[in-house]
Write a structure and sequence with these properties.
With 305 residues, the chain is of the alpha+beta class. It has 13 helices and 6 strands. The chain is globular. It is an enzyme of class 2 (transferase).
């Protein structure tokens, strides 16, 4: 309600949508990297005395649990139109997960190459906890960790859904992504960087994990069915990075005879245009990981090789 010049109370008129939208499109205040603040950040309008009803409508938008000013679809549309930047490293499988997700969604983005051995002030500022890539910048929001980023991308841009629709299937996709990350990637990396019995133990542990993946993908073209999905993206490093690690580490983890379903899945993933057209050069990867293997082995053992 507002008062007229005669001190009569009348109902305040509803604000036109274009006026509310124009306020939402103004530059938001800075947002901390990690915050529990709501995603609807608005400064109070500079003319509350002139438009008290407008001021009250805007204030009602701010705060946890309060309704949003715009409809959910309008907010999602505005979010999706904001500028996207990605900090990555050319040989990182974690960064390529994010690249593949953005490409599948058709999202335009600016790629910023990082030197992970001489980290930039920007990276240290945006990811002060892990100081690692990838880091996604979406408008004034900063998201870290590749699994989290891919899920954020899937929820922000609805086209080409990556995660399954059913909650149970979504949970299982996340579980298997984490399982492969903690069991297979870690052991395969250790196998590449070690020698002798340690390498054999790591390779054996990696193969035991592949056995579980073989059962999961058996009878399927892709983990996501007929189209590439979240789990295919998260395990996509198996198709390109793992064979390079096998070559550099002089070991074999995925035997095509022992793991035919996994081998078929790898072939399907590598032939997908989004994956095929967005991979680092194999020759450069071999050289890079050979040097990484040498450096890591020498730092761990004190032996020169």
């Amino acid at each position: 309600m507002i008062k007229t010049s005669n001190n009569e109370e009348v109902e305040s008129p509803a604000l036109p949508p274009e006026l509310l939208i124009s306020v939402f499109l103004s530059k938001p205040p800075p947002v901390p990297l990690f915050t529990d603040q709501p995603t609807c950040h608005l400064q109070p309008p500079p003319w509350p005395a002139m438009l008290p009803a407008m001021s009250m409508q805007l204030v009602s938008c701010v705060g946890k649990g309060s309704p949003t000013c715009l409809g959910e679809s309008s907010q999602n549309h505005l979010m999706a139109q904001q500028e996207v930047k990605l900090l990555g490293f050319w040989a990182s499988p974690f960064a390529y997960r994010v690249i593949w997700a953005l490409k599948l969604k058709g999202v335009d983005y600016e790629y910023i190459e990082e030197d992970v051995f001489n980290k930039s002030p920007l990276l240290l500022q945006l990811n002060p906890l892990h100081k690692s890539v990838p880091v996604l910048i979406h408008g004034h929001r900063v998201i870290c960790e590749s699994f989290v980023i891919v899920q954020y991308i899937d929820e922000t841009w609805p086209q080409y859904p990556l995660l399954p629709q059913h909650p149970y299937e979504r949970a299982m996709a996340r579980f298997w992504a984490e399982f492969a990350e903690s069991k297979l990637m870690e052991s395969a990396w250790m196998g590449q960087c070690s020698r002798g019995e340690e390498r054999e133990r790591a390779a054996k542990l990696a193969m035991e994990t592949v056995e579980k993946i073989e059962e999961l993908v058996k009878g399927k073209k892709l983990f996501g069915g007929e189209s590439i999905g979240y789990l295919d993206i998260c395990l996509g490093w198996l198709s390109y990075w793992l064979p390079i690690w096998e070559e550099v580490g002089c070991m074999q983890i995925i035997d095509p005879i022992k793991f035919p379903a996994t081998s078929s899945w790898i072939d399907t993933v590598l032939h997908h245009p989004v994956i095929r057209d967005n991979l680092p050069a194999r020759e450069a990867m071999i050289v890079y990981f050979q040097k990484r293997r040498k450096d890591i082995y020498e730092s761990r053992t004190g032996l020169r090789v």
